[in-house]
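User: Hi! I have a protein structure encoded as tokens and I'd like to know what sequence might fold into it. I'm fairly new to this, so please keep things simple.
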């Protein structure tokens, strides 16, 4: 089984499972349900420090930077939506 998984994914069994856990963690961080330590424990890591190290290796940024980046993107979208709504309301009042 190890050889089959390695040939299909180029990952060991441990690496494959760790990547699945990290993708699940990224999804949980995106939905802002839990803090980083809680996410680490919920996806099966026993040490938040090790979780952060693995997360950074896979995604290129730390979990806290990832969460901050997502929040900034959401604020940018909601800020744009808010300004669009304001323009629409002002345009509607002028007509």
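Assistant: Happy to help. Inverse folding works backwards from shape to sequence: for each of the 95 positions I chose a residue that suits the local structure. Here it is:
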């Amino acid at each position: 089984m190890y050889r089959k998984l390695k040939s299909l994914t180029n990952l060991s069994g441990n690496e494959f499972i760790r990547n699945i856990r990290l993708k699940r963690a990224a999804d949980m961080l995106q939905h802002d349900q839990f803090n980083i330590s809680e996410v680490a424990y919920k996806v099966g890591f026993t040490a938040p420090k090790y979780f952060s190290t693995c997360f950074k290796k896979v995604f290129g940024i730390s979990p806290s930077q990832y969460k901050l980046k997502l929040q900034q993107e959401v604020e940018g979208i909601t800020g744009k939506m808010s300004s669009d709504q304001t323009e629409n309301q002002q345009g509607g009042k002028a007509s």
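A useful reference point when you look it over: The chain has one domain: 2-94. Feel free to ask if any position seems puzzling.
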